[in-house]
Amino acid sequence: MGGALSWPFVRLYVLALLFFSANAILNVIIPLRGDELGASNAAIGVIMGAYMFTAMVMRPWAGHIIQKHGPLKVLRLILLLNGCALILYTFTGLGGYLVARMMQGVSTAFFSMALQIGIIDALPEKERSQGISLYSLFTYMPGIVGPIIALNVWQAGGMGDFTWMLIGIAVFTGLFGFSAARGDDKSRPGAGANGPHSRASQSWGQLVRNPILLTCSLLMCGASVVFGAVTTFMPLYAAELPGVSAGIYLMIQAGTVVLGRFALRRRIPSDGKWHSAFMMGTMLLLTAAALCVSLAATVSAMLLYVGALLMGIAQALLYPTLTTYLSFVLPPASRNVLIGLFIATADLGVSLGGVLMGPIADATSYSGMYAICAGLGAVQVIIAYGKRQHRMDERLELEGAGRQAGS
């Protein structure tokens, strides 16, 4: 097989699977451990949210540094930092968990940017969406079995097993990563690597100046709040419901993401155009998923699993669709940095899903908090309509044609 399924790319996908496998375990263990130690939902949300908040801050810098120095050099250093973060979990308490989450956030920002920039730069335009979808697919694969493993370890009281698992993941990921990253890094800085638009410190203003980037970022951030609230509080919420398991919920959701991204990878638009109906349908799925999760406490606990299925489909479609679209419409000279900024808004949303929704859950209930998430999803449907997007697309095409004619 060639293209997005050729062996060099498959090695990168497998590396992504190994890199994110620890999170599938930590996302279950940390909330349960925090609850056991008497931490509030707000405190648990801060610890969980620190991971993506740190990643959000570092994304634009990651895009800038990778654009200057190439993905492979950065990747080797990040694998070492990630290993140190995982080992820190094995001998510290909640305070150490917070530090480790922040270290993981730095690692994830650079790791995911390095791999995604490499995929976007190496694949032809028609295969970009497939490459991004397959990368995302492999990052979710650990979520199929990781939560079940984590719950079994927790219920068995085997924190020693938890320690050895994290050490094993850290070592094996590092060894495989250095093997996959061997060879000369022939990436060169982009044409605008040192220009004003490529400076990470100035890239945040693009959210205001670029309507396309703003719309995509609002959609990704709002949806990620829902995703983050599910990841952070599902282990605690499911424990209150009879006959359901957080591990099964997370397994269904992650499995749906994996199957959806593989089965639908050719259906994701890869033409550089905004598809309003497609995006509105995706946001409707997200809204329905959050509503099912909320109603599981009062109508039927089995609605929790329906919500997992719908949430997985929405996740399968949203991120690769928006990332592929931006890879076409953003200016090439600053594309890497701006995509880093877009991904940062996704990180911000996941972080807010823990930090903001934790106090709401303390003040109301988990069910009430997920009902608010459903309301947020309904707002996203309106944003996804994106009338201005069509006009912006046309204007960008005209400006591009004008630049080419003048050159």
UniProtKB/TrEMBL annotation:
Segments forming domain Major facilitator superfamily (MFS) profile: 163-407
User: What keywords appear on the UniProt entry?
Assistant: Membrane, Transmembrane, Transmembrane helix, Transport
Protein name, as recorded: Staphylopine family metallophore export MFS transporter CntE
- What gene is this protein a product of? cntE
Q: Specify the domain of life of the species encoding this protein.
A: Bacteria
Membrane topology per record: Multi-pass membrane protein
The main location class comes to membrane
Q: Which InterPro entries match?
A: MFS, MFS_dom, MFS_Exporter, MFS_trans_sf
Task: List locations, semicolon-separated.
Answer: Cell membrane
Membrane-traversing stretches? 12-30, 42-62, 74-99, 135-156, 162-181, 212-234, 246-264, 276-297, 303-330, 337-361, 367-386
Q: Which SUPFAM superfamilies match?
A: MFS general substrate transporter
Pfam families hit by this protein: MFS_1
